[in-house]
């Protein structure tokens, strides 16, 4: 279930690409307990990267206080409609997720 | 194989019978930490001052930072935050939540060609300040706003 | 849980939908809906069969529009059933699975990230998006369910002398920041009923109407309301009929 993403990338007339990613991840802080009272281990995304080919668009380091099933939005210029943006993340357990989207006019 | 299309709130969706494959989500190589290493100890620091120190210290108030958080929400697990830095040569945007056990929530690294803008959602433990700490031209700047959190309906 | 994970892994390979990337909200319900779509096609149980022949009221395998016309009377069981009861019925009769096993753990517990019922409910309800809420009131049993639902709505019980009506029989009230829907009116009932299943941010999962019934009962300090029980179904009929054709908006996102 973790590892899935939904991403959209829309380019305005002025050439600004608006990117938003929605990631499925528990972002567990490690401070909660389950129904039996046992602590639920921390499990959260620590790093997210978005690339346009070899060009790094944005990198984020995250803590556990980012929301569950989080979103990340950023903006950039210097791309074309149809270009592909590749997202990837890693979490504190070393598990990875990724997603990809092509820029659309919008 | 059945096939039909349905307009949903998430956009047009096509349903294919079992056996059809989706465009595979490629397993992309993780560009491992060519850039800054995640400052793990800063993420576990428990005081705003300690975090700002780690990030470079001496953050000066700036009105060139636009920081948006809702003034009040019944939904402290999902508080939207938007930061837009008008400071030239912004390279980093960090987001801190004052009253969280570990105030540092996120650091966004902004390379050239990327606009100094970031948006995400935070867990906010209690009413207090949210900070945007911006690094521009090697110096640190800050902006803060209060967000109130309360419980919603039936405490759940 | 393992089965769920296995299902998702399988599903992500032979996945059901090519989804256009022109979505515009941040609702994680979409992941649950995708899971549900996969689960509908997944052969399960001793019979190794999918749910594709499940009759949700509009005929075997017809999902589009089905949720908006539930709960309804089903000949094959002689009962008025809601979506969840019907899903369990199909899991048992088509797939050969055990009802007790399915209903032992239908909804996510603290720290869990989605159950089969939650995912299926999300996807199935989404196939009724924008359609008018119109559960049939033709069969005597359907009418009786409405009458029972109304009675239960106003029935006060338990340690706190609570009834649904305590919170939901008037307009313009709230608890802290939460507005309380007036479920006796078309507007209130329509908005409330139409917005489930909903991704509950504080829970991190999509919650169904069956869960909502159970949780309201819990908050009223009433005994645990069972999935697909006569009481749960009757209350849902009451709301859905009161909605008077209001459109389905689910899956939505709530606090």
CATH class of the largest domain in chain B reads: Mainly Beta
Largest sheet of chain C: 3 strands, mixed
**How does the overall form of chain B come out from the CA principal axes?**
globular
Helical content band of chain C: 40-55%
Instruction: Give the amount of beta strand of chain B, in percent.
Output: 35-45%
Mean pLDDT of chain B: 81
State the CATH architecture of the largest domain in chain B. Sandwich
Mean pLDDT of chain C: 91
User: In CATH, what is the homologous superfamily of the largest domain in chain B?
Assistant: SoxY domain
The percent range for helix content of chain B is under 10%
Biggest chain pair interface = A-B, 41 and 38 residues
Distance between the termini of chain B: 44 Å
Report the structural category of chain C. Answer: mainly alpha
What is the radius of gyration of chain C? 18 Å
Q: Specify the overall morphology of chain C.
A: globular
Task: Tell me the radius of gyration of chain B.
Answer: 20 Å
Q: Low-confidence parts of chain B lasting 5 or more residues at pLDDT below 50?
A: 1-34
Strand percentage of chain C: 5-15%
